[in-house]
Design a protein that fits this description.
single chain; Rubrerythrin, domain 2; 4-stranded antiparallel β-sheet; binds zinc ion; Regulatory_FmdB_Zinc_ribbon; Putative regulatory protein FmdB zinc ribbon domain-containing protein
């Protein structure tokens, strides 16, 4: 069995599972029953989320041309309240 992709002009793309080699160029839409045409797309390719791709790109770029800073980066601010409220009751050093 193989999964084939079709597109209805009204309802969009949908998948149909058929034996290999038996996919027709057109099938009836599973929603409205109108004619849907077969489309071809890249199968099961994972797409990297844009923020992750930017981070990977930046890390790779910094290997060759590291970013130059003009001052020491500020320290991250300390948390005012602990994540667990019971930690506030612990004895202080
Ligand atoms: Zn349809």
């Amino acid at each position: 069995m193989a999964t084939y992709e079709y597109r209805c002009p009204r309802d969009g793309a949908f998948d149909v599972t058929l034996p290999i080699g038996t996919a027709a160029a057109r099938v009836l839409c599973v929603v409205c029953g109108d004619e849907a045409v077969r489309i071809f797309s890249a199968p099961l390719l994972a797409r990297t989320p844009r923020p992750l791709a930017a981070a990977i790109e930046r890390a790779a770029g910094s290997a060759d041309t590291p970013e130059v800073v003009s001052e020491i980066p500020a320290r991250p601010r300390a948390r005012r309240s602990p994540a667990n409220p019971t930690h506030a009751r612990l004895p202080r050093p």
